Amino acid sequence: MYAVGIDTGSRYTRVVICAYENGRIRFLGAGVAESQGWLKGRIADQNAVADSVLAALRAAEQSAGGVSVESAVVGMGGPTTRGHSGRGVLELGYVREIDRRDVTRVVDRASRVQLMEDRMVLQLFPQDFVVDDHPGHRDPRRMLASRLEINVHLVTCSVQEHNSLVGAVNQAHLTVEETVFEALAACYATVLPEGRREGIAVVDIGAQSSELVIYYGDAMHLASAIPICGDHFTRDLAQALHLSFDEAETVKMAYGSAISSDVPENVYIELPTPEDRQRRDAPRRLVARILEARAVELFKYVRNEFARVGMDRALIGGVFLTGSGSKLPGLCDAAENVLECQTRFGWTEGIQSWPPELNDPEWSTVAGLAMYSAKLKQQLQFQKDNSSWLGKMLK
Fold it and tell me: Could you say which residues of the chain have pLDDT below 70?
C-alpha cells in the first residue's frame, strides 16, 4: 500500500512515495519538477500546474523503482486559506451517557458555519469539549451530561482555488485522497504529537506564500496565511540594487544574511552586470540590512499572530521554520530575536529510510503529506463507520 504526498509549490512541485506496511511508513522515492502556472500563490494556468505535477510524479515513480500510484494527499495553502474559531452545541435533553453519535453530531454542527461566497471548510480541528459547562475535555464519550459543546478551529479556503488544484491533480491521472493545509503537513512531519504539548509553532515560508500553525497541548489554536514570503526578500534586493529577479535571488542565496551585525563592514561583493556595463560592487552588509528589515517585518507579523491567541512568549516547544524561504542564512537567529523563543529548522521525522539528501526544510511539507496519507489509510475503516468530519480529526 502506497502513501503519497504532493506539494504543488509555486516554484517547485515535489512528490514523495512511501510504503505503508504494518503500521509503519518507509520511504520509496521522490521527484521534483519546476512549477509552472502559478502567480502570487494562486493558480493562473491549471494545465501548466497539471504538467508540473505529472513531471514530478513520473520522476518519483521512477525513483521508487517503477511503481505506479493512483492517489495522493495534496497540500493546499496560499493567500486564500484562513483560520476561524467555531463552536458547536448539542442539547441532549436529559442526563445520559454521551456516545460516539453525539460526538459526531456536535462536530457536524460546529462545521456548519456561515461562510462568504466562494469559501469552503478545508479542515476542522477540535480544541476541547465542554460537558455541562465544564470545559477542557478531550474525549467526552461515556461521560454523563445533558449538554455537549465543542470548540473548534476551522481552516477555510477558496472553492475556486481548491477546485483548480484538485482538477490539476486529476489531470495528472491521480485521485485526491484529501487536501491538507500545508503548514499542518509541515508540522505533521517535523513535530511529533508529544512535542506539541508544551506549545509550538510552525512557520512554512514558501516562494509565493507562507503559512503558520500554532499548537498547544493536543489542540491547534491557530492556522493562518502570512502575507510575506520568500519572493518579498528577493524583490527587496532587486529594487534596492537594480537587479533582475533571478540575479537578486542569486545574490540573496550566495551573500545574504538576515542578521546584518554578523557581516563585516569592509566586505564588498560584485553584483551581476551585463557584459557591456562596468563592474558594480555593493557592501555585503547593505545586502544583509535589506534582508534583515524584511525578516523583522515577517516575524513581527508572526508575533502578532501569537498574541492574537494568547501565545506570545508561551511556546515552550519553540518555533520551527520550514519551506524554501527558511533557508536564508541567519533567519533562525532573526526569528529568535523578534519572537523571543527558541527557533530551529523543521526536519522530517518518522519516515524510515528517509534519505539524507532530502533532510531539508524544503521537503518537510511533502513528507508530512505522505505521512498524512498513511494515517488516512490506517483510519480508513474508522472513517467508513463515522462521519466525514470526524474522519478529519487527525492530530
Answer: 276, 381-395
